[in-house]
Amino acid sequence: MFSRFRDFVNRHKRKFVVTGVVVGGAWLALQYAQRKLREYTENEAKEFIERSRRQQHYKSTERTCDHTILSLSPAIHESIINTVNTEELAAELQTASSGKIAIWEKLKVKAFTRVAALVYANSMLVLLLRIQLNLIGGFLVRDTNGDSGLSTELQHIYLSLCHHLRDSGVVDLCNLIERHVQPILENVSLKKPMSLRDTEELFWSIQNSIESNVYDNPIKTIARYVFPPKEKVDTENLQDQEIQQLFSIMSETVDLLDSDEVASLTRSCVSQSFAAVVDKLAEQFAPVSSVEPIPGPSNEQIANSWATALNNGANKNNSFIHPSNVTIPLAKLIPIVSKLTKQYPNKKDLWIFQLVRNDLVKVFGANVYEAFGQKE
């Protein structure tokens, strides 16, 4: 029996070997495929978790950035008001018995300087904080263990550098802007009738003058106004290695602030803010009819009142005055412009909210976050 079995095996030896190789190879292939599928599934799960973690962290960084901008903006606003003080000139104008024309001339320059300074300072603040907070956020998200290599003290010192804009930066910016506003307005008579288009062109002239000088252009030299020199940075509580890290991050930030992309974004923010100023002033250029409509209890009565007012005005003047043809003497426009920059408790800032929501700035912040969030 055993001899017949042995003979059977010997006769089919090759078939057994081939079958064994095929079955073994298939088993090994199946094990390999299962292992690769398991690795692929695990990697996909890890990548999904990592993407979710980074996405949640980025959203948290964005919320922090928006909140920080809105928290610091009032301090910048107040600093500009204190630096370019129109209230003192207005009070002096009410009490002065002579020399009122000279006071009006100063007030004219100060009012437009304050608006322009607020426009540029807010734009700088938004871009600076987008860079700073997304840069720190990128460092923090690098390591899944939360070890970014940046100490809490270092992060605090780095983020506190933006206070330079609130202090000496605003003063330098206001002085620069006033030097450009002065020659533009000195030849504009206080009696000159100003239309909405004239006012818009005046702001355009101020913006063009400020940005015309290569060396003094605040858009090209933002770092000068928002960052203190290295020798003025308080590094007393940092170790030598942390000081080197801080200065390295500061250099990275300055490079970003001096880049063409940031200059283009800042110019876009400034133009957007000046457009918002003109839109706000447009409310003051509404044509005044001879009869004031009295709001009634219904929309129909209100419409009839307006129709009566317009018809009476048309009969009296033989034409309807388009808002673009309405003019206001510059002397009457100055208090209106000055009032735009006045701070009111619990009132939204005129420009800062639209800058916070600017999509181009948000995309730029996301790019900074992604760039510094890549593992080396």
TrEMBL record:
InterPro entries: Peroxin-3
Entry GO terms, CC: peroxisomal membrane
BP GO annotations: protein import into peroxisome membrane
GO function term, MF aspect, one: protein-macromolecule adaptor activity
Keyword Nucleotidyltransferase carried by entry: no
Pfam entry (one): Peroxin-3
Keywords of this entry: Peroxisome biogenesis
Main function: Involved in peroxisome biosynthesis and integrity. Assembles membrane vesicles before the matrix proteins are translocated. As a docking factor for PEX19, is necessary for the import of peroxisomal membrane proteins in the peroxisomes.
Subunit and partners: Interacts with PEX19.
Protein's recorded name: Peroxisomal biogenesis factor 3
Name of the gene encoding the protein in the UniProt record: LOC127748606
